[in-house]
Write a structure and sequence with these properties.
alpha/beta, about 325 residues, 8 strands, single chain, 12 helices, N-(1-d-carboxylethyl)-l-norvaline Dehydrogenase, domain 2, 2 domains, binds nicotinamide-adenine-dinucleotide, Rossmann fold
Length: about 325
């Protein structure tokens, strides 16, 4: 079966225009795609336009949007899911994270979207094979799981289901790359995919340490901001672990500390979200907010992320081209 070629994918259909659908719309408009949206909730069109307007300064700062203002003439609202799918060259599904909602939505899209076009789901938890069960053309369905806010954070996890064509995975990756995203491809389905598993492993220990009184919420976040976070943002946890062994690398760590590492693992916490643990989380968040609203914090986070990613774009990861390993030294000399 031949899928619609990347250069012919010009109209993106979006099912659902909540926070994720809005982020996709902003990014796709910035990348000169036509976007057609269906969302039945009251005021969805106005919220979507306001969300795209709010995302635009970040898209401009990242160099993702060439136009000074969002090209709203390229944005249409459809009368139904089927109407949206009929007009689309590709569909990204972003409805609520509940199998019974997604099942209905995916089945309707699949029933009218031409069979050579991809259905991509933003689902953070539902494995794609479960969604394929409701499709007549399951071979073109897969997951493209973004990270919030999806118009800024580059990662998208591409996850195939049991029936997904390998060519659909390739096409989805190329589609996301064209949008300026950084796709990774999972080799098997697993609940929470990859990044949510990593995130929740760390979050579980942070909550455990907070509830056990090991450190304050401020200091737990500081441990990430000043220690683990910068190293992980530069190169990820596995390369960080390798470098912890110095010149001897991971081989030396395993030779010397294998049983110690297993000992640390066995001491990690298994907290439950009891009322007491929830209270300490709420109290911690209140402390961290310093009397400011979450909206103020979110806006600040987005500006910080834009600055960080602008730096990253200008200074590529050395693993993409080991010739860049000397780049830091060159900058040092230039200073
Ligand atoms: N919020 C995040 O941080 C995040 C990150 C990555 C992925 N996701 C995933 O993206 C999806 C959407 O998440 P969200 O946070 O945008 O949810 P949301 O609740 O903000 O938005 C869902 C939207 O879907 C609409 N909707 C409901 N029924 C519909 C239907 N039949 N047809 C079309 N639209 C319909 C709702 O009106 C709502 O606007 C979920 O699967 C979630 O797991 C969320």
């Amino acid at each position: 079966m031949t899928l619609l070629a990347l250069e012919n994918i010009r109209v993106a259909g979006l099912a659902g225009a909540g926070s994720v659908g809005t982020a996709w719309a902003a990014l796709m408009l910035a990348k000169d795609m036509k976007v057609v949206v269906y969302d039945p909730s009251e005021g969805a069109a106005e919220r979507l336009r306001a969300g795209v307007e709010a995302a635009w300064p970040a898209l401009r700062a990242l160099g993702s949007a060439n136009q000074a203002h969002p090209p709203f003439e390229a944005l249409r609202f459809a009368a139904s899911l089927e109407d949206m799918a009929r007009q689309s060259d590709i569909v990204q599904e972003n409805v609520a994270e509940a199998l019974e909602v997604k099942r209905d939505v995916i089945a309707k899209i699949d029933s009218v979207l031409a069979s050579d076009r991809l259905i991509l789901s933003s689902s953070g938890g539902v494995p794609p094979s479960q969604l394929q069960a409701f499709c007549s053309h399951p071979e073109r369905l897969l997951l493209g799981h973004p990270f919030h806010p999806a118009y800024i954070v580059p990662l998208v996890e591409v996850v195939a289901g049991e029936k997904t064509l390998p060519a659909a995975v390739t096409l989805a990756r190329r589609f996301y790359e064209k949008l300026g995203k950084h796709p990774i491809t999972l080799q098997k389905e697993m609940t929470g995919h990859l990044s949510n598993r990593l995130q929740f492993a760390l979050l579980r220990e942070a909550i455990y340490c907070l509830s056990e009184g090991v450190a304050s919420a401020d200091d737990i976040d500081a441990a990430m901001r000043f220690g683990l976070g910068p190293r992980w943002a530069v190169m990820g946890p596995l390369m960080t672990f390798n470098l912890a062994g110095g010149d001897g690398g991971i081989e030396q760590i395993l030779a010397r500390f294998r049983t110690d590492v297993e000992g640390w693992w066995s001491s990690l916490g298994q907290p439950s979200l009891t009322p007491e643990v929830c209270d300490s989380l709420k109290a911690g968040a209140q402390l961290l907010r310093k009397g400011r609203s979450n909206a103020e914090w979110s806006a600040w986070r987005d500006r910080e992320l834009v600055d960080f990613l602008s730096y990253r774009n200008a200074h590529p990861y050395a693993g993409d081209d080991p010739a860049n390993l000397g780049a830091g030294a060159a900058r040092e000399v230039a200073r």
